[in-house]
Amino acid sequence: MEPVAILPQRREAVERYAGQTQPPFEILIDETRDVVKAYGVWHRIGLDAWNISRPAVFLIDRDRSIRYSLIGKSQIEFPGHEDILKAI
Hints:
The chain is of the alpha+beta class.
């Protein structure tokens, strides 16, 4: 299994973030928000921003089936590392 982050932001912001944090995984940029819309996590207006996606984690098998998912109700809701490892 290989982790990949999909960030629905402008390329410049993602490149700046990646340069500062140097994450140990690949980051894909979704400027058009097509991917987050396809997964149902995009929303036009939130309490703290507009045109954003909810934080979400999807574990996808090689056969493209979703084994685990969590979609946050707010921008600060994420599953714990233990929950993700258990799902893996």
